[in-house]
Amino acid sequence: MVxxxxxxxxxxxxxxxxxxxxxxxxxxxxxxxxxxxxxLYEAHIRSKRHKRRISGANTFHRCxxxxxxxxxxxxxxxxxxxxxxxxxxxxxxxxxxxxxxxxAATARSEYCTLxxxxxxxxxxxxxxxNSTHRRKEGFAAFKVTLEEAEKNKxxxxxxxxxxxxxxxxxxxxxxxxxxxxxxxxxxxxxxRVVEAKLSSTTAKNLSSAFSTSVAINTxxxxxxxxxxxxxxxxxxxxxxxxxxxxIFEDEGLGQRFVIxxxxxxxxxxxxxxxxxxxxxxxxPRKRTARKPETEVxxxxxxxxxxxxxxxxxxxLAAIPKNLSQTLSTGSLSDVVGRVQRIFxxxxxxxxxxxxxxxxLIWIEEYxxxxxxxxxxxxxxxxxxxxxxxHLDVPGLAENRPSVLVGDQILVxxxxxxxxxxxxxxxxxxxxxxxxxLRFHAGFKGWSGGQHYNIRFKLNRYPLRRQHQxxxxxxxxDRILLPTQIHVQTRNxxxxxxxxxxxxxxxxxxxxxxxxxxxxxxxxTVVEAIRQLLVRYPTAHILACAPSNSAADLIxxxxxxxxxxxxxxxxxxxxxxxxxxxxxxxxxVTNSDGHFTVPPMETLRHFRVVVSTCVSASMPxxxxxxxxxxxxxxxxxAGQATEPETMIAIKTMADNxxxxxxxxxxxxxxxxxxxxxxxxxxxxxxxxxRLMETDLYDEVKGHGTTVVKLTKNYRSHNAILKFPNEKFxxxxxxxxxxxxxxxxxxxxxxxxxxxxxxxxxxxxGKDDREASSPSFFNIDEATQVKTYIEDLRADRKFRVTDQDxxxxxxxxxxxxxxxxxxxxxxxxxxxxxxxxxQGQERKAIIISTVRSSRDFVxxxxxxxxxxxxxxxxxxVAVTRAQALLIVVGDPTVLSLxxxxxxxxxxxxxxxxxxxxxxxxxxxxxxxxxxxxxxxxRETGLADMNDFTCRMESLTLAGIDSVEDGIDVDANVDRxxxxxx
Length: 979
Known about the structure:
Elements: H1 6-11, E1 26-28, E2 33-35, H2 38-45, H3 48-55, E3 60-63, E4 68-71, H4 72-80, H5 83-92, E5 101-102, E6 109-112, E7 117-120, H6 124-129, H7 131-150, E8 156-158, E9 162-167, H8 169-174, E10 176-184, E11 191-198, H9 199-202, E12 210-214, E13 219-220, E14 226-232, E15 238-250, E16 255-267, H10 270-276, E17 295-297, H11 321-327, H12 332-342, H13 353-372, E18 377-380, E19 382-385, E20 388-392, E21 408-413, E22 421-430, E23 434-438, E24 452-456, H14 461-470, H15 477-480, H16 497-502, E25 511-514, H17 521-535, E26 541-545, H18 548-556, E27 566-568, H19 600-605, E28 608-612, H20 618-621, E29 631-634, H21 642-652, E30 658-663, H22 675-679, H23 686-691, E31 706-708, E32 711-712, H24 717-727, E33 733-734, H25 738-741, E34 757-761, E35 766-769, E36 772-777, H26 778-793, E37 804-807, H27 811-821, E38 829-831, H28 833-836, E39 841-847, H29 856-862, H30 870-877, E40 880-888, H31 890-893, H32 897-908, E41 912-913, H33 931-941, H34 948-955
Parallel strand pairs: 9-16, 17-22, 25-30, 25-31, 26-28, 26-29, 27-28, 29-30, 32-33, 34-40, 34-41, 37-38, 37-39, 39-40
Antiparallel strand pairs: 1-2, 3-4, 3-5, 6-7, 8-10, 10-14, 11-13, 11-15, 12-14, 15-16, 18-24, 19-20, 20-23, 21-22, 21-24, 22-23, 35-36
Keywords: ATP-binding, Cytoplasm, Helicase, Hydrolase, Nucleotide-binding, RNA-binding, RNA-mediated gene silencing
Domain C2H2-type: 26-50, 61-85, 110-133
GO molecular function: 5'-3' RNA helicase activity; ATP binding; hydrolase activity; RNA binding; zinc ion binding
C-alpha cells in the first residue's frame, strides 16, 4: 500500500531522497478529503457526494423560532413554509422569513462540525474514535500544512502559473520549459536558494515528465529576482501534473522553509480541444412531470398503415393502471419486490409463461415511454409544404429518437402550453434529419415564425405484436420449457451442425447453433436452409433475425434460390432507400410504393420467407394457417428478447414445427431499457435461457440439442487468443485467411512487430456538456485520430477508411470522434458495440473514454461502458481481423478483473504503449477479488491513503442503486430497430 508522506503532511514538503511515500496529492476543502492524483480529484469534484456537499444538502441549520435543526436547503424551504413554523412566528410576532443559524447541540446530541452530523452524546467518544472522524481531523491539520506550503513566506515570493497548457506532441517529445521568478521583499534579508525538486521524484521508483532547475546557493537580493526553470518532456499524449518544491534558507535566522507551486501540462492537439471542448458546462437535465394531454386531435395516417391486408385484429394491450402506478415510485429493489409479489405468477410453467412475459413487456414499455421524454423539443418550428408539415428532429439520423412512417408526434403551440390541447401529427415520410407530418383539419394558425412544443409518442405496434403472440393458445413444453424427456434418442453426436438440423425429427426440441465470433453462424444457417429445401420438397421455412440488417444478410445469401422461392418481407414503414438493391426483386410493393405482401396463394408458394422477428407477425395477421412453416429459424437469436422470438413461434408453430436458433450467449443480448425488466429477466434471450439448462450443455448435448462451431475465420491468433480462453474454453481454432489476418505484422503501428495488439495507456479527462449525461474524452479522440492518420498515410501497409472501425461505448464520444475525423477520414465507421456486433474490420480501434474512477461505479450500475460488462468486452475485441488498438486509462480499466487480465496479456506480449502499468502484470488475477473494493477499503482504513473516489462510493452509497432509476441511465443505449 502506497501511503502519503508523513513529512509532507507535517511540513508541506519532504527532504528524504528517495522516499517510499506518495507526494502527488490534492485537497477538497468542502468535503475534507485528500486525493492522491489529479484524476481522482477531478472525479471527486464531479461526484454526487461532492455536489451534495457544496449544495448544502448535507448541512444542518437551526431555526431560531422553532429551535429545531433542519438538514439541507430543500428541507429548510419546506420547514419555513409549514403551518407549524407559521403559527410559531405568529405567536412570537415575528416574520415567517427567518435567517438560518448554525446548527446547535441539543439536549441529547452534539453536532460534529467536521463530519456534518449529529451524534448522540452517549456515542460521542465512539464517534470521535472512528476512522472517518479521525480522517477528517487529520485533514483539517493536513490542509493547514499544505496551504502554508503554497504561501509566500519570510518575505519571499514565487511566481504563480506553472501551467504549460496544451503542448503539441512534437514539442512535448523535444521538451518545453517555463520560467518562474523568486524574489525577496525584505531589503535587509539574506535568503539562499537551497534546492528545487518535484514531489513525485521524491518517492522511490517514481519518475516524472517534469524536471526543475535553479541555481543552487544563489542569494536572493532585494530588487533583483532570481529565476528557476521547469522543463516538461513526454512522448505520450495525456494529462500530467506534479508539484515543484523550492527550499530556501534564511541565513540570518538559520531557518529553512519551503514554497510549493503546482505544475501541469496536457499533451495533445490545441485544434481538437478547441473543436471538441464542452459547448457549455454540464448541468444534469431535471426531469419534470409532463402536463397531461387533456385533448388530442388525431392526425391523418399514412397509406402505409393499410398496405398489409390484416384479418386478425390486433389488441391494444395497454399497460394496466395498477402496474404503471407500481413502477412510478420506490427504489429498484422495492419495485422489483412489489412486481414479483403482485403481478408475476408464482409458478413458472407453460400455463403461466405468457402472463409472466406480458408483464415484463409492459414494464419495458413504461421505461421506453419515459426515455422518449428526453427528446421533447421546446420552441420548434414547422415548415409547410402543401399538406405536409416538415419538422427537423435533432439526432434522427442516428435513431435518437427512432421515428418510422406511421408514428405519432404531438404538436402544441408554444403559446397554448397551459391548455393541454395537442395536435397529433402522423409521420408520412422520414428523411435524414426531418420528418413529414399530416394533421387534423382543425390544425390552424400556422406561420413560419410560430414556435411549437413537440412530444414523441412510442410506436407500440412491435409491443402489441408480442402481446398478440403471447395471447395465443400454443404452449408446448418441448419448445417453451424443454427437458430431457422431450429429447428423442438418436446417435448423431458426431454429425456437423447442418446434418444435425437436416436429420432432426419433426417433434424435436429446439436446436441451437452456438456460434462464437467469426465462426460463420450465418453461413451455417444459410447452408442448413439450402439442405432442408433439397431434402424435404414440402419444407417451408420462416427465417428471422432481430434486425433488418441481419435479416438482409440471410436473404442476400439465398438470392440464388430465385424469386419464385425466396420472399423478403419488410414492414410497410421501411423506406426503399434502406433496402439493398439486390433484394428489391424479392419484395412486393403496392401502388403507393409501400412494401406489402402478395396474395395468400402466392405467399404460400414461397419456400423461404425472411423477416425480422417482430415483422414475423405478418403471416398470422393475414390469416395463414398454423403449421404452414415446417421450420422456424432464428439467426442472431441472442439479440432478441424471448417475447420477440415467440411472435413467430407461438403464432405459426404446431406439433411438428422445427425450431432452430443460431447465436452466441457470450455476446451482447437484447437492449433492455428498464432496470426492473432487466432484474426480472427480460434481458435473457430465449437462446441464452435454453443454453443455461443442462439439456443444452455444449458437451453433453452435442449433436442432439446443440452444436458449437469452433473454426474462427476472422481474427489473427493473437487477437483471438484472450477471448477464446476467457469465453470459449480455448476451443476456437484460428482459420482465417493468412493474407488478411497477417496484414499488419511488421507495421510501424505495432509495439511488438509480430503481435498485432496495442494497448495505448492514456490518462485523459472525461467530460460532459450542456444537458447531455453521455461522456467524451478529448485526449482519447485526438489519439484515435492520430492512429487513423498514421494508418492511412502508410504506403506499405495500405488500408482504406472502410477497413477501419472505431468502437466506443458512449454516444458523445462517437460524435466527437466523427467530428475530428470529418476532415481526415470521413469514411471510417464510428459506433457503439451494438452497431458493430456481427461486423468485422481489418483494424479496430477502441476508445474506452473513462478516466475518472468515480464514474466507474456508474458503468457498474448501468452496464453501459466496457468495465464490468464481459459480453460488451468480448464483442468489442473480437471485431478485429488483423489489428486491435485499445486506447484507455489503465488505472480505471484495471479495477475490473477481466480488463486487468487483458492488460496483463498485452503487456506481457510487448504490446503496451505509454506509461507502464502500476501493478505487477505477472501476478495472477483473481476473478472475484474485487479490485475496486480493495482500493475502496484501503481508502477508508487509513488517512494516509486518501483514495477519494473510492471513499465517495462508500459514503455516497445512499444515492446509488437504491435511489431508484437514474434518468440518465439509458442515454447511451441505442433504440432498437425491430420492424
